[in-house]
């Protein structure tokens, strides 16, 4: 674990757990506040010991965000087969970088640079490392996260480069969890919402009451969502009224898509800045990209891509 400090703020990073952020908090909560005050849902000791990224505060999404239907997609005439399980788990989830260790490349008291290298032909025995034609991502690439804690808050610069000798499809983002208390709300400007099927995969892009609610400030208790939103303006304001605290999430292009996960009766929710809609690769192949923007990109050999996201606390 790596601890970053700046004034009263602390960030814990777990490079060995998928390059995840394990906590972001104020060490002293302030007058009348519990100490510490967590801006992201903190990882539990059990999650850290189990090396479970799903129990972290936030983890990176690469080389695609969210699900790929049946763990398969066609790219440049080749069917790519990704690791999958059964039932809903047959849909490949969140790429693979979150399941692998990242290397500490540089660090200071308040910053950290992590590096990740995907070698599809190394034969490590993991399904996601399989060679082309097997179950895995057949494109070699590298990625970095540059994490900085400063006066404004916590920022992460994401960067990746295609090291393969052929074009590579690519999507990325981050998957933060936030504490949820009664009355917690989130505001964001979006254009439309993807309706989903029973397996949480997108089927149509439509207007929805959640789109208007987000504009005004959506109360999480009023909606049961696990949906992608298009036309996101790359800002979202989270408010905890009972704590008089607000947190601004800001992102840069191409993180132009937004995922909101807010099922009822759990003490957390997710608001994710991402570069592609769920199952973007199959939506593109089906021709949907001709009618709507589904995000994602294709990197030429040697081409790079980067984006930045930041969590900016507003303390009452």
TrEMBL record:
CDD domains named among the record's database cross-references: Aldose_epim_Ec_YphB
GO biological process: carbohydrate metabolic process
InterPro entries per UniProt: Aldose_1/G6P_1-epimerase (IPR008183), Gal_mutarotase_sf_dom (IPR011013), GH-type_carb-bd (IPR014718)
GO terms for MF: carbohydrate binding; isomerase activity
Gene3D superfamilies: 2.70.98.10
Superkingdom per UniProt: Bacteria
Protein name according to UniProt: Aldose 1-epimerase
